[in-house]
Amino acid sequence: MRPYILNATDRIREIINQIKSERTLVARFALVEYRDYPLEENIFVTRVQSFTNAEAEMNGWLDQCLAQGGGDTPEAVADGLYDILNLSWDPQAVKICILIADAPPHGLHPIGDSFPSGSLLGMTQT
């Protein structure tokens, strides 16, 4: 999984560099990581890094991304999207969200899904 995360973070850095090179834009960046439900493990389901305009801070967050935990194929995608919707968005800004995923959310296909009812929102948030 590590090579995929490295590739994704490299693409995010390219997007940030491209946006920052456009001098007429005022840009802020946030990062919401999500995983699977690790009920038996002491790791996060979602990890939210709120908006910053500091490229170095965003790069530091990307450096910390790694794969850990999970037991089935689906992931806590709905939990990540929930946290994205609840960021401190500037109401006057153009908003862009880029979702990078490697698996579907819980609740779509009950076979092989440890959480066939879908998200555990509100039960495991960090």
Written overview of the protein:
This is Hemicentin-1-like von Willebrand factor A domain-containing protein. InterPro entries: HMCN1-like_VWA, Thr-specific_kinase-like, vWFA_dom_sf. GO terms for molecular function: protein serine/threonine kinase activity. The chain has 126 residues and is an alpha+beta fold. It has a domain at 2-85. Helices cover 30% and strands 10% of the residues. It has helices at residues 2-21, 55-63, 77-85, and strands at residues 29-34, 46-52. Strands 1-2 form a two-stranded antiparallel sheet. The longest helix has 20 residues, at 2-21. Mean pLDDT is 84; it is low at 122-126.
Q: Share of helix among residues? A: 25-40%
Enumerate the strands of the largest sheet in spatial order, edge to edge or round the barrel.
1-2
Could you give the count of β-strands? 2
Biggest β-sheet: count, sense, barrel? 2 strands, antiparallel
Q: Mind telling me the C-alpha Rg?
A: 16 Å
Taken in chain order, the helices and strands follow as HEEHH
Instruction: Note the gap between the termini.
Output: 23 Å
Structural class: alpha+beta
Mean pLDDT: 84
The percentage of residues in β strands lies in 5-15%
Count every helix, treating DSSP H or I runs of 4 or more residues as helices.
3
Query: Stretches where pLDDT falls below 50 for ≥5 residues?
Result: 122-126
Based on Cα principal axes, name the global outline: globular
